[in-house]
Amino acid sequence: MDTPPPDLRSVFAGALERPEGPGRDAYLDEACRGDASLRADVEDLLRAHEGAGDFLAAPPTAEAGPPPPTEGVGERIGPYKLLQQIGEGGIGAVFMAEQERPVRRRVALKVIKAGMDSAQVVARFEAERQALALMDHPNIARVLDAGTTDAGRPYFVMELVKGIPITE
Question: Could you give the CA distance from residue 16 to residue 88 in angstroms, rounded to a whole number?
Answer without folding.
Answer: 40
